What does this fold into?
Amino acid sequence: MILCRTKTELQDALKAQGANPIIGFVPTMGALHEGHLALVRQAKRENEVVVVSVFVNPIQFNNSEDLEKYPKDLERDLDLLKEVGCDIVFAPDNAEMYPEKPTEIYNFGALETVMEGAFRPGHFNGVAVVVKRLFDLVKPTTAYFGEKDFQQLAIIRALVEQENLAVEIVGCPTVREHDGLAMSSRNTRLSEEDRRIAPQIYKILRDSRDLVDVFTPVQLKTFAEEQLKKIPRTKLEYFEIVNAKTLQPIENWEDCRRRIACVAIWLGDVRLIDNVKI
Ligand code: PAF
It folds into this structure.
């Protein structure tokens, strides 16, 4: 496995793979868990060369405390990536990624005005800036993203379409702990007590999914919000039932065939997101 800290090192490592290799790419912010490793394993099965980026992208954090507390352990990440057969790791620092203040502005219309976009202003522009730059450097055949960040996946697909990029985007199912909690780098920041409470979030999502025949989407939203607010030590940001393509809230089940219930909730001082197809 080759570790590249600069763009030049990355270009050299890619050149050394021969002419036009089929490249699978997994962009990450490090603090890797089984969810990331599942993406890398899939990339390994489907491509000749696997590239993983590890970069905590400062411009996608709208909260400086969240950025400061974001877990970082490159040595551990490298060990894990080696074990799953990653070929090239690109781990630049801020100056390498942003030698000048980035000025790109993207417009994803209604996709970015709801849910994460509404609560984290500027977040998706920051994601789009870094992902576009990483795609330009790595030139992947296929890039892999987790469905836990469902809205991010929709934004990346929109970015690829808008910029006419020759990369296939693959969304991969959320990997969960044995008790249902969606894997997230932020889970390591949960206190012991909060870690015990956290699986209740997914339980409420599952219960909601089972009540589709009983409630309208609007009634189900109210039900889920009430349940989520009962979890101790939490502060609910949103629970929305949306059209899985447009991400706009639905009022009737007949509005669309693919729907998704998405939640963002603070547990102590950790912000968690999750979703289920509904
Ligand atoms: O999902 C993430 O970890 C990040 O948002 C990404 C896609 C690596 C961009 O920084």
Remarks:
- The radius of gyration is 19 Å.
- The mean pLDDT is 98.
- The pocket of pantoate is lined by residues 27-29, 57, 60, 127, 130-131, 149, 152 (CB under 6 Å).
- The beta strands are 2-4, 23-28, 49-54, 88-90, 142-146, 168-172, 234-243, 259-267, 270-277.
